[in-house]
């Protein structure tokens, strides 16, 4: 789960990570009010969307009057912001962050993420802050420093000093980075984060380190023990179908193709998409209904699939393990009858009670296309789409 910049900065402040003073505003009048509370003669107005590249897209403005604060907020709130990280529709702006400007001397990059290959948290830093880290990695990889944290001993002070001097900080700033990084690592572990990124981490005109921006991703599987973080979820920033899937505990990602997939198990779902591509088709989604799926979840899955107007055929690929194939077949039949599907539906079942499941589908009277194996299923669904 992603959260907004202003929410990330609240977490940073809770862990004593320096951030500029600022407040979210959900309408133009509130933006003006927050600017008045901050005082001064200039303010930053920043669109809050789950996407990078806001500044280049016109979503971050420095203004020098209260009227201008309100005017920029009016231009942003309720509109969509299109950046290089969004699709052509962009992301809706529900609020802005009104913030005190900060004098910038140096821009740095800092992030923590889970390195699955190493099975450790990786700390990544660069002297090239304010840029896309992918661009830095592609063109000047020597300017990126990475340190892995032993989960037993935790982040060590010597690692922080190595990072600090590698990105050009002086001795005093190295002490600041050690304090900041130690707290950032504690935040990462205690809140079950999968990514935290500060870009840029700046040295201000007083020689102090400060998080000028913040991106935080939270492991969805840990949200049950972080109700405060779960409350930060913003459905407006998520594809509508993906939001509905979340409500029914379905793992769903929208894709650009026209063959919908309904599969139980993430690995099997990826294999299903691969074989559809192999046979010349294009998957319309990733959809994992889970190992313990039910008729109700299958029904909701079909409804999700049919809400995508690009879908021309459906491939159901289920392995009966935890739930037996005959029960899955009953769920498919119930769902197809309830939803009223007119598209071609190819069904491949395998696993426990597979013979009974196939017989139920055969006797259902529905126009379901049976498949013997995954290759057969892919060939049939691609043929159904191509006519």
UniProtKB/TrEMBL annotation:
Q: Where along the chain is ATP bound?
A: 46, 53-55, 99, 102, 107
One GO MF term on file is: ATP binding
Q: How is the cofactor bound?
A: Binds 1 Mg(2+) ion per subunit.
What is catalyzed by this enzyme? Answer: GTP + succinate + CoA = succinyl-CoA + GDP + phosphate; succinate + ATP + CoA = succinyl-CoA + ADP + phosphate
Q: Where does Mg(2+) bind?
A: 199, 213
Q: What GO terms describe the biological role, i.e. biological process, of this protein?
A: succinyl-CoA metabolic process; tricarboxylic acid cycle
Alphabetical GO CC annotations of the entry are: cytosol; succinate-CoA ligase complex
Family in the record: Belongs to the succinate/malate CoA ligase beta subunit family.
Q: What is this protein called?
A: Succinate--CoA ligase [ADP-forming] subunit beta
According to its UniProt entry, this protein's organism is: Thioflexithrix psekupsensis
């Amino acid at each position: 789960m992603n959260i907004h910049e202003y929410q990330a900065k609240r977490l940073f402040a809770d862990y004593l990570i320096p951030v500029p003073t600022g407040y979210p505003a959900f309408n133009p009048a509130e933006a003006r009010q927050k600017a008045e509370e901050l005082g001064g003669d200039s303010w930053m107005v920043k669109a809050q969307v789950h996407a990078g590249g806001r500044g280049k897209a016109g979503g971050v403005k420095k203004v020098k009057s209260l009227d201008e604060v309100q005017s920029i907020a009016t231009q942003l709130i309720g509109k969509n912001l299109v950046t290089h990280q969004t699709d052509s529709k962009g992301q809706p702006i529900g609020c802005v962050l009104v913030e005190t400007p900060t004098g910038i001397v140096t821009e740095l990059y800092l992030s923590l993420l889970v390195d699955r290959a190493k099975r450790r948290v990786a700390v990544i830093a660069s002297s090239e802050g304010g840029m896309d880290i992918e661009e830095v990695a592609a063109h000047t990889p020597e300017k990126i420093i990475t340190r892995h944290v032993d989960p037993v001993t935790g982040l060590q002070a010597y690692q922080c000093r190595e990072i600090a001097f590698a990105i050009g900080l002086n001795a005093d700033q190295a002490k600041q980075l050690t304090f900041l990084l130690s707290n950032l690592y504690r935040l990462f572990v205690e809140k079950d984060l999968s990514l935290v990124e500060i870009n840029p981490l700046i040295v201000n005109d007083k020689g102090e380190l400060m998080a000028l921006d913040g991106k935080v991703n939270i492991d969805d599987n840990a949200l049950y023990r972080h109700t405060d973080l779960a409350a930060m979820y913003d459905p407006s920033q998520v594809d509508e179908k993906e939001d509905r899937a979340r409500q029914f505990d379905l793992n769903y990602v929208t894709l650009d193709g026209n063959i919908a997939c309904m599969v139980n198990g993430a690995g099997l779902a990826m294999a299903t998409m691969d074989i559809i591509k192999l046979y010349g088709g294009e998957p319309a989604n990733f959809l994992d209904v889970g190992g313990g799926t039910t008729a109700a979840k299958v029904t909701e899955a079909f409804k999700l699939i049919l809400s995508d107007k690009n879908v021309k055929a459906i491939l159901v690929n289920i392995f009966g393990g935890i739930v037996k194939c005959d029960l899955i077949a009953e769920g498919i039949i119930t769902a197809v009858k309830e939803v009223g599907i007119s598209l071609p539906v190819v069904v491949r079942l395998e696993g426990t009670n597979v013979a009974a499941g196939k017989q139920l589908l055969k006797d259902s009277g529905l126009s379901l296309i049976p498949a013997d194996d995954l290759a057969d299923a892919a060939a049939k669904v691609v043929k159904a789409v191509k006519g």
